[in-house]
Structure formats: structure tokens, C-alpha cells
């Protein structure tokens, strides 16, 4: 699913974010990525959906060689990867339905298919009755569920979540985690960057810890391992 | 900003239209005059018939020459008398003792060869003088050339200004929608999918900007055609006819407007699509 070998990343301003990362993640895994701020977590995640290109090394996702993928092909890679952010990244003027439908309009699905699939996925995240609301009328947890719905609406094999619970209260965070676990149970690989010790230590999954651009720990059913 | 860029296109196209109309008409006048350019070679009075035939032979042997007409001094005098109208009668007294020369009237295939051919003929034996409307023709050519170059430089400058303004307008729209574009890229939109709304916007701005210029060209040229062209009495100076010229010009203006708009949008979108 994901295979990184000897990945280095130095930004044009001279900052080295990744210092030789080797990671393999199989289809259907649920993986936490932990580590202090500025340790390279974000760059690690950006590598996977080709928002950044490695300076050195190989990154293979879904059999795409990302290190020499032509940027014309990048959109087709991203259609197989759902992305969820801490700040939701919803369009404020569009309804919940439109926000989710957006991901299908972009790949030029027919309106009939879009309508059916969007309602299906909104049902999955428990927001079927709020399809006509705009994001501002929803709570943070509900907005994040809309973002998750958008991420999974075109059946990606991989969902990347960059601190999906970062802006949410603990109770809402558990709801989000429940949805992510359900998605994972259906066979989708999930890669989640997080700072939540509670979540990592309660819902035990594989943990990859990144510090100073290196993988310092990689354990199945691991602990968060940092004191905050 | 939208109004500013449509305004820029409008101004540009009005000037482009005016210059084009002027230049094309000048070209036409120059073309008319070129066609009328002929060389008149005057034969020495002393030349006998054999020598005249010889000259004709020599002229016909010049490859650039298209036609040679012989005009005897009687014919020359008649032409002169006719062209003088009433006053021509006074010249009739020369019919007994004609002071004019026999002449050859020569046309070249390409009017631009006139000068070379004329100087070549001048070298022949028994040729007294060679005339052609040298000064008038060359001044007109020169004026036409300057007008064309200055017009072209102005048009290019204006077109680039208009493109710049349109691309700025579209840049503002894009920045307002940059979040949307970012999300589009996130969920796998191709660049073509993101680009086309801006492409349409640029096209619309350009086409919108060409409405007023086209109206101005059609009405302005119609006015010129109906009123001014009657005042022009020289037969070699004539305006291009309103139909189809003004319509063709309008089409060109519309095309330039569309190209300016599309180019402006393509230029500004390109920067946002990298990453």
C-alpha cells in the first residue's frame, strides 16, 4: 500500500524535514503517526498524497511511484486517497450535501450517481438529516464528519487524517474515532497523525513515532509515549 | 477591476480598429497608385524608324517589363490636348509643327521594379528622357511604411496592457477562490477542470470589451463611407467599401478581444495550478 525507502526531504529554505525514512504500511492497516511538533509528521503525510516530492528516496503508494510521478497524473492518484484535516477545509457557502458532492463533481460523475452516493455516505457518518445545512450551522464534530464523508465518498483505498480531532472536545473526538474505525473495518487503510495520548493509548493500533525526520519507534498496538 | 479590464480591452480595440482601418485603406490607396505607375521613355527627335524599333526590342528584352506601348508624337499631342480640356485648343496650333517626342509607355510586372527599369532604359541610345512619378510614389510608400510601423508598435503595446489588466482581474477572482481551488486539487480535480471557468471568464471579458469598439467601427465607418468618400475626387483614392470591409474588421476586432481575454486568463491561472 505505502512503501517508503530512504526518503529525505530538504525544503528550498534549507530546512531538513525528513532524514531517511523507511516505512511499509499494508492495505487495511490503521496507523497512528505521533511525534513532537516540527518533527516531520506533516511532511511525512504530504509525501503520501504528493503535496511534496522527496528530495531523495522512493515513495510508492497504491503502485504509483510518487518520486517520479508526472504532475499531470497527480489528480488521479488523489482520487484514491481521502484526506481529512484538523480545520475541516469545508467550503463555507456550500451546503453539507454540496461539500461532499464536490469530490464527485470534480471527477465528473453523473448527477444521479452523485445524489445517491452522497446520501449514502452522509447516512454512514450520521448526517443524513443535515444535508441542507451549511457548515457554520453545524458543530465542530459534525463539520469533521462532513469532511470525513467527503474523504470517503469516492471509495478511496487510503484515508489520511492530519490531527482530525485536534479542534474537537474529547467526547466528539471519540465519535470521530468510531467513524474512522468503521471505515477501517471495511478495508480502508487509515493513516492518522495525532497529538492525543488518550486516543492512541485507548484504541490500540500500530504507532509510528517520528522525531527529527527519522522513525524512532514503530510498534504494533503501541503507546503514545510522550508526556504532554 | 472587472470594469477596468473591460474598459482596457475596449480602449485597446477602438484604437486597434481605427489603426487597422487607416492602414488597410492606405494600403489600398498605395496599391491603386502602384498600379497606375508607368514609365514614359521619350525618344530623341532625331531617331529614325529602325532605331525606334531597336529601342522597343531592347525594352521588351528587360525581364521585369510587363507591357510596352508605343505612342507617336501625334498621339502624345492628342492626349495632351484632351487632358487640358478647354485650354487644350491653344495647343492645336502645334499640330503642324509638333514639338513633342515619340514615347514608349512601359509597365513593370512588379511596381517596385519601376526605379531599376527606368534607370536601365535611360542608358539606351536615342532615349532623351525617362519620366515616372518618382517623388509622389516614394513619399507615399515611405509614409505608409511609417504609419504601419508606428501603428503596429502602438497596437502591440496596447494589446499587452489589456492582457495584463485582464490577467490581474482574473488573479483577483482566483485568489478569492483559492481555498476552493485548493480543495478541488485535494480531491483530485485535474487542471483542465479547474481552469475552464476562468477560461470562460477571460473569454467573456474580452468579448464584452469588443462590443463597443465594434459598434464604433460599424457606425463610424458607415458615416465615412456615406459622407466623406463623396468628397474625395481623385480616382486613385477611394475608401474600401463598407460591405464587406467594416464587417471583416469587426470580426477581426472580436477575434483579438477573445484572444486577449483567453490569454490573460491562461497567464494568471497557470501560476496557481503548479503544486
Automatic annotation (TrEMBL), chain A:
Q: What does this protein do?
A: Part of the ABC transporter FtsEX involved in cellular division.
Name the GO terms of the biological process aspect: cell division
| Ranges of residues in domain ABC transporter | 2-228
Query: Can you supply one Gene Ontology CC term for this chain's record?
Result: plasma membrane
Q: What PROSITE patterns would the database entry show?
A: ABC_TRANSPORTER_1 (PS00211), ABC_TRANSPORTER_2 (PS50893)
Family annotation (PANTHER family): CELL DIVISION ATP-BINDING PROTEIN FTSE, IMPORT ATP-BINDING PROTEIN
Encoding gene (name): ftsE
Quaternary structure, from the entry: Homodimer. Forms a membrane-associated complex with FtsX.
Q: Which family does it belong to?
A: Belongs to the ABC transporter superfamily.
Alphabetically, the GO molecular function entries are: ATP binding; ATP hydrolysis activity; transmembrane transporter activity
> What does the record say about its membrane topology?
Peripheral membrane protein
List the CDD domains. Answer: ABC_FtsE
Name the NCBIfam families on file.
FtsE (TIGR02673)
Q: Can you name this protein?
A: Cell division ATP-binding protein FtsE
Location in or out of the cell? Cell membrane
- InterPro entries in UniProt: AAA+_ATPase, ABC_transporter-like_ATP-bd, ABC_transporter-like_CS, ABC_transpr_LolD-like, Cell_div_FtsE, P-loop_NTPase
Whose protein is this, by species? Sediminibacillus halophilus
Keywords assigned: ATP-binding, Cell cycle, Cell division, Cell membrane, Membrane, Nucleotide-binding, Transport
Q: What is its main location?
A: membrane
Q: Which SUPFAM superfamilies match?
A: P-loop containing nucleoside triphosphate hydrolases
Amino acid at each position: 500500500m505505502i512503501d517508503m525507502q530512504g526518503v529525505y526531504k530538504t525544503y528550498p529554505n534549507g530546512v531538513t524535514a525528513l532524514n531517511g525514512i523507511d516505512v511499509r504500511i499494508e492495505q487495511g492497516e490503521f496507523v497512528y503517526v505521533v511525534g513532537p511538533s516540527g518533527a516531520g509528521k506533516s511532511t511525512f503525510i504530504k509525501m503520501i498524497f504528493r503535496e511534496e516530492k522527496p528530495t531523495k528516496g522512493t515513495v510508492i503508494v497504491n503502485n504509483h511511484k510518487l518520486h517520479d510521478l508526472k504532475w499531470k497524473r497527480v489528480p488521479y492518484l488523489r482520487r484514491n486517497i481521502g484526506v481529512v484535516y484538523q480545520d475541516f477545509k469545508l467550503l463555507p457557502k456550500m451546503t453539507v450535501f454540496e461539500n461532499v458532492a464536490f469530490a464527485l463533481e470534480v471527477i465528473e460523475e453523473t448527477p444521479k450517481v452523485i445524489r445517491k452516493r452522497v446520501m449514502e455516505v452522509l447516512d454512514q457518518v450520521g448526517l443524513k438529516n443535515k444535508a441542507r445545512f451549511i457548515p457554520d450551522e453545524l458543530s465542530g464534530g459534525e463539520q469533521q464528519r462532513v469532511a470525513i464523508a467527503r474523504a470517503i465518498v469516492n471509495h478511496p483505498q487510503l484515508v489520511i487524517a492530519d490531527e482530525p480531532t485536534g479542534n474537537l472536545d474529547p467526547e466528539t473526538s471519540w465519535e470521530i474515532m468510531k467513524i474512522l474505525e468503521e471505515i477501517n473495518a471495511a478495508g480502508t487503510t487509515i493513516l492518522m497523525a495525532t497529538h492525543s495520548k488518550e486516543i492512541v493509548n485507548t484504541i490500540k493500533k500500530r504507532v509510528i513515532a517520528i522525531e527529527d525526520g527519522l522513525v524512532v519507534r514503530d510498534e504494533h498496538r503501541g503507546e503514545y509515549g510522550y508526556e504532554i | 477591476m472587472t470594469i477596468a479590464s473591460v474598459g482596457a480591452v475596449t480602449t485597446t480595440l477602438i484604437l486597434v480598429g481605427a489603426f487597422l482601418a487607416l492602414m488597410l485603406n492606405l494600403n489600398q490607396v498605395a496599391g491603386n497608385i502602384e498600379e497606375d505607375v508607368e514609365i514614359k521613355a521619350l525618344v530623341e527627335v532625331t531617331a529614325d524608324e529602325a532605331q525606334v524599333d531597336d529601342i522597343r526590342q531592347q525594352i521588351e528584352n528587360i525581364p521585369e517589363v510587363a507591357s510596352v506601348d508605343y505612342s507617336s508624337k501625334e498621339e502624345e499631342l492628342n492626349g495632351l490636348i484632351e487632358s487640358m480640356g478647354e485650354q487644350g485648343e491653344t495647343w492645336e496650333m502645334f499640330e503642324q509643327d509638333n514639338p513633342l517626342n515619340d514615347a514608349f509607355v512601359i509597365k513593370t510586372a512588379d511596381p517596385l521594379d519601376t526605379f531599376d527599369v527606368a534607370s536601365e532604359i535611360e542608358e539606351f541610345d536615342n532615349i532623351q528622357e525617362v519620366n515616372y512619378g518618382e517623388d509622389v510614389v516614394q513619399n507615399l510608400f515611405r509614409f505608409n511604411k511609417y504609419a504601419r510601423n508606428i501603428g503596429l508598435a502602438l497596437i502591440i503595446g496596447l494589446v499587452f496592457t489589456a492582457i495584463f489588466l485582464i490577467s490581474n482581474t482574473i488573479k483577483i477572482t482566483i485568489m478569492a477562490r483559492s481555498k476552493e481551488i485548493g480543495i478541488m486539487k485535494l480531491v483530485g480535480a485535474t487542471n483542465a477542470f479547474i481552469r475552464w471557468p476562468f477560461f470562460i471568464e477571460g473569454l467573456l471579458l474580452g468579448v464584452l470589451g469588443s462590443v463597443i469598439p465594434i459598434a464604433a467601427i460599424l457606425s463610424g465607418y458607415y458615416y465615412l463611407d456615406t459622407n466623406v468618400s463623396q468628397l474625395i475626387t481623385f480616382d486613385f483614392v477611394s475608401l474600401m467599401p463598407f460591405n464587406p470591409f467594416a464587417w471583416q474588421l469587426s470580426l477581426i476586432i472580436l477575434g483579438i478581444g477573445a484572444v486577449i481575454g483567453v490569454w490573460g486568463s491562461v497567464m494568471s491561472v497557470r501560476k496557481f495550478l503548479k503544486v
